[in-house]
Amino acid sequence: MAIVACSNGASKMRPGAPGATSSVTMAPGNQMPPPEPSDMVPVGRPYVVGPFDKLVVDVFGIEELSEREVQVDAGGRISFPFAGMVEAGGKTPFEIGEILRTRLRASHIRDPQVTVNLKETVSQVVTVDGQVKEPGRYPVIGKMTLIQSVAVAKGLGEFAKLDDVVVFRTVRGQKLAALYNLNAIRRGYYDDPEIFAGDIVVVGDSSAKRLFKDIIQLVPLLTTPLVIALQN
User: How far apart are CA 57 and CA 90, in angstroms?
Assistant: First the structure.
Protein backbone atom coordinates (compact mmCIF):
# COMPACT_ATOMS: atom_id res chain seq x y z
CA MET A 1 0.00 0.00 0.00
CA ALA A 2 1.38 3.38 -0.94
CA ILE A 3 0.74 5.97 1.76
CA VAL A 4 1.57 9.62 1.45
CA ALA A 5 3.48 11.00 4.46
CA CYS A 6 2.29 14.45 5.53
CA SER A 7 4.25 15.26 8.65
CA ASN A 8 7.41 17.10 7.53
CA GLY A 9 9.45 14.06 8.36
CA ALA A 10 7.67 13.35 11.62
CA SER A 11 6.11 10.18 10.22
CA LYS A 12 7.37 7.58 7.79
CA MET A 13 6.15 5.71 4.75
CA ARG A 14 4.45 2.40 5.44
CA PRO A 15 4.49 0.09 2.41
CA GLY A 16 2.26 -2.95 2.34
CA ALA A 17 3.34 -6.53 2.87
CA PRO A 18 5.77 -7.96 0.28
CA GLY A 19 3.97 -9.26 -2.74
CA ALA A 20 0.67 -7.69 -1.72
CA THR A 21 -1.36 -5.79 -4.29
CA SER A 22 -3.38 -2.69 -3.56
CA SER A 23 -5.48 -0.16 -5.44
CA VAL A 24 -4.42 2.61 -3.07
CA THR A 25 -2.22 5.16 -4.85
CA MET A 26 0.15 7.80 -3.53
CA ALA A 27 -1.38 11.26 -3.72
CA PRO A 28 0.67 13.95 -5.48
CA GLY A 29 2.21 16.66 -3.31
CA ASN A 30 1.72 16.55 0.44
CA GLN A 31 -2.08 16.78 0.68
CA MET A 32 -4.95 14.65 -0.55
CA PRO A 33 -7.45 16.38 -2.82
CA PRO A 34 -11.06 16.67 -1.65
CA PRO A 35 -13.43 13.97 -2.95
CA GLU A 36 -15.53 14.52 -6.05
CA PRO A 37 -19.34 14.52 -5.65
CA SER A 38 -19.49 11.31 -7.69
CA ASP A 39 -17.26 9.51 -5.18
CA MET A 40 -20.00 9.26 -2.55
CA VAL A 41 -23.37 10.59 -1.64
CA PRO A 42 -22.64 14.16 -2.76
CA VAL A 43 -20.62 16.11 -0.24
CA GLY A 44 -20.30 19.83 -0.18
CA ARG A 45 -19.78 22.93 1.84
CA PRO A 46 -22.58 23.80 2.69
CA TYR A 47 -24.18 20.51 3.59
CA VAL A 48 -26.05 18.50 0.99
CA VAL A 49 -28.78 16.04 1.83
CA GLY A 50 -28.45 12.28 1.43
CA PRO A 51 -30.60 9.16 1.87
CA PHE A 52 -32.31 8.70 5.26
CA ASP A 53 -31.42 12.20 6.49
CA LYS A 54 -34.15 13.84 8.54
CA LEU A 55 -35.28 17.38 7.73
CA VAL A 56 -37.60 19.87 9.38
CA VAL A 57 -39.69 21.93 6.95
CA ASP A 58 -41.47 25.07 8.08
CA VAL A 59 -43.90 27.14 5.98
CA PHE A 60 -44.34 30.45 7.75
CA GLY A 61 -47.91 31.31 8.72
CA ILE A 62 -49.43 27.94 7.80
CA GLU A 63 -49.82 25.87 10.95
CA GLU A 64 -50.44 22.50 9.29
CA LEU A 65 -47.25 22.93 7.24
CA SER A 66 -45.08 24.22 10.08
CA GLU A 67 -42.29 22.28 11.76
CA ARG A 68 -43.02 19.14 9.79
CA GLU A 69 -40.37 16.44 10.06
CA VAL A 70 -39.67 14.54 6.85
CA GLN A 71 -37.19 11.78 6.11
CA VAL A 72 -35.34 11.33 2.86
CA ASP A 73 -36.00 7.89 1.39
CA ALA A 74 -33.40 5.51 -0.04
CA GLY A 75 -33.75 7.12 -3.45
CA GLY A 76 -33.10 10.62 -2.13
CA ARG A 77 -36.72 11.83 -2.27
CA ILE A 78 -39.09 13.44 0.21
CA SER A 79 -42.86 13.82 0.20
CA PHE A 80 -44.53 17.04 1.32
CA PRO A 81 -48.20 18.12 1.33
CA PHE A 82 -49.24 20.12 -1.77
CA ALA A 83 -45.75 19.64 -3.22
CA GLY A 84 -45.72 15.91 -3.89
CA MET A 85 -42.45 14.01 -4.30
CA VAL A 86 -39.33 16.15 -4.34
CA GLU A 87 -35.83 15.05 -5.35
CA ALA A 88 -33.81 16.08 -2.26
CA GLY A 89 -30.68 13.95 -2.58
CA GLY A 90 -27.59 15.94 -3.51
CA LYS A 91 -29.26 19.29 -2.80
CA THR A 92 -28.71 21.72 0.05
CA PRO A 93 -31.55 22.47 2.48
CA PHE A 94 -31.84 25.91 0.89
CA GLU A 95 -32.26 24.40 -2.60
CA ILE A 96 -34.91 22.02 -1.29
CA GLY A 97 -36.72 24.97 0.27
CA GLU A 98 -36.74 26.79 -3.06
CA ILE A 99 -38.23 23.76 -4.82
CA LEU A 100 -40.92 23.46 -2.16
CA ARG A 101 -41.68 27.15 -2.44
CA THR A 102 -42.19 26.85 -6.20
CA ARG A 103 -44.38 23.76 -5.82
CA LEU A 104 -46.51 25.33 -3.08
CA ARG A 105 -46.98 28.51 -5.09
CA ALA A 106 -48.18 26.35 -7.99
CA SER A 107 -50.67 24.81 -5.55
CA HIS A 108 -52.19 28.28 -4.99
CA ILE A 109 -50.44 29.04 -1.70
CA ARG A 110 -49.72 32.75 -1.88
CA ASP A 111 -46.05 33.72 -1.46
CA PRO A 112 -45.03 30.75 0.72
CA GLN A 113 -42.02 31.37 2.97
CA VAL A 114 -40.26 28.02 3.31
CA THR A 115 -37.29 27.08 5.46
CA VAL A 116 -35.66 23.67 5.54
CA ASN A 117 -33.24 22.61 8.27
CA LEU A 118 -31.27 19.46 8.84
CA LYS A 119 -32.36 17.57 11.97
CA GLU A 120 -30.35 14.37 11.70
CA THR A 121 -27.87 12.93 9.22
CA VAL A 122 -26.93 9.34 8.57
CA SER A 123 -25.54 9.80 5.07
CA GLN A 124 -22.70 12.25 5.67
CA VAL A 125 -20.48 10.47 8.17
CA VAL A 126 -16.83 9.79 8.88
CA THR A 127 -15.66 6.46 10.28
CA VAL A 128 -13.17 6.75 13.15
CA ASP A 129 -11.50 3.47 14.11
CA GLY A 130 -8.47 2.06 15.87
CA GLN A 131 -7.09 3.46 19.12
CA VAL A 132 -9.83 5.92 20.01
CA LYS A 133 -12.09 5.67 23.02
CA GLU A 134 -15.33 5.26 21.07
CA PRO A 135 -14.80 3.99 17.51
CA GLY A 136 -17.78 4.55 15.26
CA ARG A 137 -19.46 6.57 12.53
CA TYR A 138 -19.93 10.27 13.23
CA PRO A 139 -21.80 12.97 11.27
CA VAL A 140 -19.88 15.55 9.27
CA ILE A 141 -21.77 18.83 9.21
CA GLY A 142 -19.82 21.80 7.95
CA LYS A 143 -16.04 21.66 8.14
CA MET A 144 -14.29 18.96 10.19
CA THR A 145 -10.55 18.44 10.70
CA LEU A 146 -8.54 15.36 11.67
CA ILE A 147 -8.13 16.53 15.28
CA GLN A 148 -11.86 17.20 15.49
CA SER A 149 -12.70 13.75 14.12
CA VAL A 150 -10.62 12.14 16.88
CA ALA A 151 -12.27 14.41 19.44
CA VAL A 152 -15.81 13.36 18.45
CA ALA A 153 -14.70 9.75 19.04
CA LYS A 154 -14.00 10.82 22.66
CA GLY A 155 -10.27 11.18 22.13
CA LEU A 156 -7.31 8.84 21.84
CA GLY A 157 -7.19 5.37 23.34
CA GLU A 158 -4.64 4.22 25.88
CA PHE A 159 -2.34 2.66 23.30
CA ALA A 160 -2.70 5.24 20.51
CA LYS A 161 0.32 5.72 18.28
CA LEU A 162 0.27 9.42 17.46
CA ASP A 163 2.57 9.22 14.44
CA ASP A 164 0.52 6.45 12.86
CA VAL A 165 -2.85 7.96 11.97
CA VAL A 166 -4.10 7.01 8.51
CA VAL A 167 -6.90 8.67 6.55
CA PHE A 168 -8.46 6.70 3.69
CA ARG A 169 -10.39 8.54 0.99
CA THR A 170 -11.83 7.86 -2.45
CA VAL A 171 -11.34 10.55 -5.09
CA ARG A 172 -12.67 10.07 -8.64
CA GLY A 173 -12.99 6.36 -7.90
CA GLN A 174 -9.35 6.07 -6.79
CA LYS A 175 -8.59 4.98 -3.24
CA LEU A 176 -6.02 7.18 -1.50
CA ALA A 177 -4.43 7.08 1.92
CA ALA A 178 -2.37 9.59 3.90
CA LEU A 179 -0.30 9.12 7.04
CA TYR A 180 -0.40 11.87 9.69
CA ASN A 181 1.31 12.63 12.99
CA LEU A 182 -1.08 14.12 15.56
CA ASN A 183 1.75 15.46 17.69
CA ALA A 184 3.19 17.31 14.70
CA ILE A 185 -0.23 18.83 13.95
CA ARG A 186 -0.73 19.87 17.57
CA ARG A 187 2.67 21.57 17.60
CA GLY A 188 1.84 23.47 14.44
CA TYR A 189 4.40 21.78 12.17
CA TYR A 190 1.69 21.49 9.50
CA ASP A 191 -2.00 22.24 9.17
CA ASP A 192 -4.72 20.08 10.64
CA PRO A 193 -6.08 18.40 7.46
CA GLU A 194 -9.73 18.63 6.56
CA ILE A 195 -11.85 15.49 6.87
CA PHE A 196 -14.74 14.81 4.49
CA ALA A 197 -17.80 12.61 4.69
CA GLY A 198 -16.90 9.11 3.57
CA ASP A 199 -13.36 9.29 4.97
CA ILE A 200 -12.04 6.54 7.24
CA VAL A 201 -9.69 7.61 10.04
CA VAL A 202 -7.65 4.86 11.68
CA VAL A 203 -5.49 5.62 14.75
CA GLY A 204 -2.60 3.15 15.05
CA ASP A 205 -1.76 0.94 18.00
CA SER A 206 1.53 1.38 19.87
CA SER A 207 2.99 -2.03 20.62
CA ALA A 208 5.61 -0.30 22.82
CA LYS A 209 2.96 1.19 25.10
CA ARG A 210 1.12 -2.11 25.27
CA LEU A 211 4.32 -4.03 26.06
CA PHE A 212 5.29 -1.58 28.81
CA LYS A 213 1.91 -1.96 30.49
CA ASP A 214 2.16 -5.75 30.31
CA ILE A 215 5.59 -5.65 31.96
CA ILE A 216 4.38 -3.32 34.72
CA GLN A 217 1.54 -5.69 35.51
CA LEU A 218 4.02 -8.53 35.94
CA VAL A 219 6.10 -6.57 38.45
CA PRO A 220 4.13 -6.24 41.74
CA LEU A 221 6.39 -3.62 43.31
CA LEU A 222 9.00 -1.36 41.73
CA THR A 223 11.75 -0.36 44.16
CA THR A 224 14.14 0.88 41.46
CA PRO A 225 13.62 2.54 38.08
CA LEU A 226 12.58 0.10 35.36
CA VAL A 227 14.53 0.48 32.13
CA ILE A 228 13.62 -1.72 29.17
CA ALA A 229 14.34 -1.61 25.45
CA LEU A 230 11.19 -0.73 23.50
CA GLN A 231 10.73 -0.82 19.74
CA ASN A 232 7.78 0.84 18.00
Answer: 17
